[in-house]
Design goal:
alpha/beta; P-loop_NTPase; nucleotide-binding; Hypothetical Protein Yjia, Chain: A,domain 2; binds guanosine-5'-triphosphate; GTP-binding protein; chaperone
Amino acid sequence: MSSAQPIPVVVLAGFLGSGKTTLLNHLLRSARGTRIGVMVNDFGSIEIDAMTVAGQVGSTVSLGNGCLCCALDASELDSYLETLTRPSAGLDVIVIEASGLAEPQELVRMVLASDNGRAVYGGLVQVVDAAEYDATRQRHPETDRHLAIADLVVVNKADRVPAEELRRVRASVTALAGRAAVVEAAHGRVDPELLFERAAPRDGAGEGQLSFDDLREDEHADHPHAAYDTVSFTADRPMHPRRLLDFLDGRSEGLYRIKGFVDFGAADPANRYAVHAVGRFLRFYPEPWPEGEPRRTQLVLIGSGVDGAALGAALEGCRVAGPEDVPEEHSMWGVLRYVPEKGEPEPGGPGGSEPETSEVPVEV
Ligand SMILES: Nc1nc2c(ncn2[C@@H]2O[C@H](COP(=O)(O)OP(=O)(O)OP(=O)(O)O)[C@@H](O)[C@H]2O)c(=O)[nH]1
C-alpha cells in the first residue's frame, strides 16, 4: 500500500472474551509486511489487553480505562489518530480494538467524524464467540444490531463447539449480518487479507460500508456497559495456587470475565500465568516472566451483579500469607489442569511465528 493513500481504520469489536486480542495478535504475527498500528481500549484500570498486545508491536496506543465509546470523543480520537497516521510511522492500517463492552456503532461514528485527512474508516469487524453465542444474545439483544452493521463477522472458537452447532451459529449470524462476510475461525486465525482487503480504501471510497446516515443516534441508551462492574486487583505477594483455584472454581455466574497475570511465587518462580475466564471457560497460560517485570499478580474482573468489595477481599485471602503459609506439595496440579494441551495457542503468546511486522516506535 502506498503511504499517499489514506490509512484505513478498522474497528475490531465483539463481546467480552470473544477473542479480539487473540485475533489481533494473530494479525500482528501474520501480517507479512503490512504495518499495523493498534489502539487498545481496556475496560478496567489495569491494562491487560494493552500488555498482551504491547509485546508484539511498537505502534500501540493504549486508550486506557473505560469504555471507549463513552470516554472518548471524536476530537480525542483524532489526536490519537494524528500520532498513528504520521507519515514517519509508516503504517498501512490501523486497528482499534474496542473493549468487550463498547458500543461499536459509537466508535464507527467517531471514526467517520474524524477530520484526519490521512485516515479513512476501514470497516467493522465483529468477533463472535461460537460457544457463548446463544447466551450472549439472550443477555444482550443488541448483539444482533452489532452484527447487522458489521463488514466482516468472525465466528470464533470454532474448535469449542461441535460441527453441527457451528453450522447453526453460522447460519444465524449470516441471517443477522446481512451485508457482512461471515468466516469461521479457531483462535482468531483469519486470513489477514480478509481484513486488509476489506479495509483498503477502494475507488468510490467506502462503497458498501456504513455511512453516517446508517447509524442511528438513539442506540447508545441500551449500552451494555451500564450493567457491568469492574474490579481490579493487584498483589505484590504471590498467590496460593489452591486457594486461587478454589476462588475461580467457585466464581458466580455473574462474574463473566477475568483476565490478567498471576504470580505463584515459589510454586513456579520462572513463569507468570496469564489467566482467562470467559463464562465457565477457564485457562491458565504459563509464560516466562518478561525481563525486568516485577513479580506481582494483576487481575481484572468484569461482571454484572457482583460485589466488588467481596471479590477483592476473597482475592486478598488467596495471597500467600507469609513464610509459614507454604502451598502444599502438589498445589499447582489444580492450576495445571487448566493449562491448554499443546497445539492450543496462548492468547497473545507463541503458538505461531514471530511477528513479521517491524517495530515502529511511536511516541504518544
Ligand atoms: N478454545 C478457544 N479459545 C479461544 C479462541 N479464541 C480466543 N480464545 C481464548 O479466549 C480467551 C479470551 O480471548 P481474548 O482474545 O482475550 O478475548 P477478548 O475479546 O480480547 O477479551 P476482552 O478484551 O476481555 O473482551 C483467552 O483465553 C483466549 O485464549 C478460540 O478460537 N478457541
